[in-house]
Amino acid sequence: MAAPLLELERLSVVYEPAILAVEDVSFSIWKGEIVALLGANGAGKTSLLRAISNLLRAKRGRLSKGHIIYDGQRVERVPTHRLVETGLVQVLEGRHCFLFLTVEENLLTGALGRRSSRGDAKDDLGRVYEVFPSLKAKAKQPAGLLSGGQQQMLAIGRALMARPNLLLLDEPSMGLAPLLAAEIFETLAKLNRDDGLTILLAEQNAASALHYASRAFVLENGRLASGGPTADLLARDDILSAYLGLVSEKIVETASI
Amino acid sequence: MDWSFLIGVVISGLLAGVMYSLVAIGFVLIYKTSGVLNFAQGSMLLFAALTFVSLHEEGLPFWIAFVLTLAIMVLLGVLIEKIVLRPLINQPPITLFMATLGLSYIIEGGAQFVWGTQVHQLDLGIADVPLPLNSILISQFDIFCAGVAGAIVAVLGVVLQYTRVGLAFRAAAFDQYAALNTGLRLPRIWAITWGVAGFIALVGGLLWGARTGVQFSLSLVVLKSLPVLVVGGFDSIIGAIVGGLLVGLTETLMEVYVGPFIGGGIDQWIAYALALAFLLIKPTGLFGQRSVERV
Ligand SMILES: Nc1ncnc2c1ncn2[C@@H]1O[C@H](COP(=O)(O)OP(=O)(O)OP(=O)(O)O)[C@@H](O)[C@H]1O
Ligand SMILES: [Mg+2]
To answer: ipTM strictly over 0.90?
Structure first.
């Protein structure tokens, strides 16, 4: 088997003064996969994604242990903007759009991060508008006027502008109506299928995430509680009810839609 | 009521206000990108004026002295950001403020050490004589200052709105964490901002210096621009401009129409009274948005 695109080796995350948010987490992601990262409030999903994108310092935290290997390179000391340049891009929890900037300007910041040429940025803009047509109609409006769902699309679009190889998404369905969330998951699945975009998806919405992911990992209190192919997880009632707050029939129902 | 006199007072008030705006813009730029209330802005202004005058007095031609001083100011700004503020990243705002307060004394002391303490005259070659416009008298020098400040604001506006650097600045000013995550190079944005603040300090220093003489009290214009920031909002360039104009106007109007009845000296405190009123009514200032969260 080829080398993984991302390897996490025994990661621990600590926030000041001494809050252990993630402890000894290891797993790998291969190119072309959609992997779900599940867990309840405070389980450590966001902290783990921050660790991967080297954003912990900005939140008064740090990687206290472990290695991160992306595309064959150790990257735990590589600054975020370098990671973005090499295609490791994150869509933050809570969207974090630049609300005073127009939709198009928001997207262009993604091109700035990648240091794309003007020509490339223009091409990418066209592509993002194809993926999210509703953004095109609002191109010249401030992002602050968008609905929650459109802001989520904008945040994803901004990340796409950086031409990601590995996209980390932190609860993209948070606060969205089920239909809208489904639309966003479908778009991600399509990007994965058509462009081979590798995706690590942190979600509390376990049903949807499991529906789209090929493998999933479950965090509990910062530790990896279980993980494996989604089919295996879905077959285990103990995991479904203990960690994911799901009853198996419900999953089967959702998964068959 | 003498209308042409009133109009003259209003115009010279607004023109005086432009000078406040100029200093305040230097503040706002830094506050917006890094959340630091840079108390050293006044010392930077003094340092710039003093360096320029001294180089000029050494016999360097105007433009060479100007460019040289500009280079020194940009370097100073970048160094402050790198050496003092970067290591203090993630510290509470009060720590950063204290750091810039300390810095202002170091810069002033340094300027004193290098250039001495005497008062220098600075002649920009624009006579400070009243220019009669119909029957209204307006200082030619005030108009020149307003023109320079206006030009700077216009250029800044265009750069912010239409260039990549400007886009990165606006993004980082709104949400540093998101900017970091998007891959924007915050340190570079900070360095550029401090460089521009250095340039504005130089221009402000020359204009103020030409008016009052280059001396150590020049760094006190920082105290004049605090009320401007309170009125306009700490994080708004438009606010700095409007706040400056309002403060200048209020000062001049009060000085002319109220001052005689209460024995003068009103310009010493009226700006603060205005600022206080704003704090009570609209704490974010006219155009202020929100407090900046620092990465
Ligand atoms: N900046 C911070 N400083 C201190 N502790 C933090 C910080 N951010 C998160 N934590 C703590 O770390 C733990 C993990 O939080 P994290 O945000 O990673 O969980 P999560 O799985 O993303 O939760 P949610 O689903 O609510 O987003 C929690 O106990 C949280 O309180
Ligand atoms: Mg989270």
So the answer is: yes
